[in-house]
Amino acid sequence: MARPWSIGSFTGRSGDHMQLRVTLTKIQHIANLQWSVDLDRRGITAIVGRNGCGKTTLAKALLTIPLGDTLASTSSEGIVGPDSWIRYEFGEQVFELRFDTDLETLSSRKPIPRHLKAMVGVELPVPHGDRFKAFQAIVEHDHDLRTALAIGRGAPRQELNDFLNRVYRTDRFTDLLEVRIRHRSFYCFRRPQERYLREDHLSSGEYFLISVYRRIVSGVKFLFIDEIDISLDADAQARLTGELRSLCERQGVHLVFTTHSLALMSTLELGEMLYMEREASEVTLRQASYNYVRTLMFGFRGWDKHILTEDEVLEDFLRYLIERYCTPTFYQYQVIHIGGAVQVASLLDRNSREHFFGPEKDVICVLDGDQAKQPHAGGRNILCIPLDSVEKALYAAFMAGAIPAAYCLNRRKFHPNGKELFNELLRIGVFKRRQVFEFLCSRHEKGLSSFAMQLSEFLGGKLS
After folding, report:
1. Is a pLDDT exceeding 80 seen at residue 223?
2. Taking 80 as the threshold, does the pLDDT of residue 77 lie above it?
3. Is 360's pLDDT higher than 60?
4. Is the domain of 229 the same as that of 256?
5. Is the same domain home to 233 and 282?
6. Is the domain of 10 the same as that of 98?
7. Most CB within 10 Å of its CB: which of 36, 308, 312, 463?
8. Hey, what long-range contacts does 424-433 have (CB within 8 A, 24 or more apart)?
9. How would you classify residue 96: left for phi > 0, otherwise alpha for psi between -120 and 50, otherwise beta?
10. Is residue 457 part of a domain?
11. For the ranges 78-92, 116-130, 206-220, 346-360, which has the lowest average pLDDT?
12. Number of domain units in the chain
């Protein structure tokens, strides 16, 4: 389930952090879109969503900050009209672009100061991205680059070379050289016989990652890249997020990018993915888990978390506890009954090595409370409910005379494990299964609500 991406009461600053808030009104097919970003945060954020939801329109609106009105030059005619406007709020400083009837585009009478423009960088996909415009600069400096290499200038930029080597799982970028010409960096390989290989002669994905690195270290605080995965193979995508996360934390940059890549999405951490959705003409962004997005965008049903347990009754009881105490849950989850407690614990142990359910941190097992002192219940990621079992707790209530509707059974003897009594109470209609769970929760509210806090923490839920 998705968690709403709430802007909340906007003061412009969160602690000592500068916030940028962007509002788009009646731009192309978007009636309203509001989004705020922490300019002082370090790390990465991915925006995902179906085609046409507004990701590229948001990117173009952000590009207007450093470059002026880019909507007209990068979009088809008619994207804006007399009712269109964009507002940018840097802290308490507000700048608006309104429709100019003479120019038939958006313009502002209050320009954004240079120091605020310098905080923001945006990279659009082909043909508008800065990396495509850089081709000409590389060609223009070809002679200077050849001369610099001939006299021995140029040295590896270790951070970039390591970044590329780790993304592509290779060492072939170890000898990549950085050459500074007129305050600008160019990258190339020196080859025998006075030859060299320029960065624009590399594959499109390799050249793109060099361009991304160049933008990250350029001094911006916030960088937005539209369609970051478009030139990269799935193998590189799977390692890209970890490398970008580390790089941005070191450089003090908040990188936000859009993607449609499942390989890339699957490597994002909690809080790093926003799902953009357009309902009618209103656009919303909300935090979402990988499997939530995978289900909505691609129709694949998956699970972020797994709970393994002993039997069907305990499985249903756990589902009831989650519904009663933990909803809404952030993660998509599945509860699976396996068999006896020993088998459940054994399967959890195997998963920690083989990951057939998922990473170790995403799988737990829950046993009946009467197993708590057994050796197999002492491992990691093993919880026990605060009842000996559902059936035993029901048997104890019956023996205490707490089930008046079951008076007709008072003369019968039932096994203390409670299973026979449980089935009989359901058979004669004293309880339905859900009513048994409600009854036990009312009798053991404190213990069960406390136990539910552990489930809620595991599932990213909110204890109710």
Report:
1. yes
2. no
3. yes
4. yes
5. yes
6. yes
7. 308
8. 425/394, 430/403, 430/405, 430/406, 433/313, 433/316
9. beta
10. no
11. 116-130
12. 3
| 433 within some domain | no
Same domain, 290 and 308: no
DSSP bridge pairs for 257? 46, 225
Asked if residue 82 and residue 154 are part of one domain, the reply reads no
- 168/61 same-domain check: no
Task: Say whether both 348 and 276 belong to one domain.
Answer: no
Residue 202 shares a structural domain with residue 315 = no
Residue 151 maps to a domain: yes
pTM: 0.74
Residue 441 lies inside a defined structural domain of this protein: no
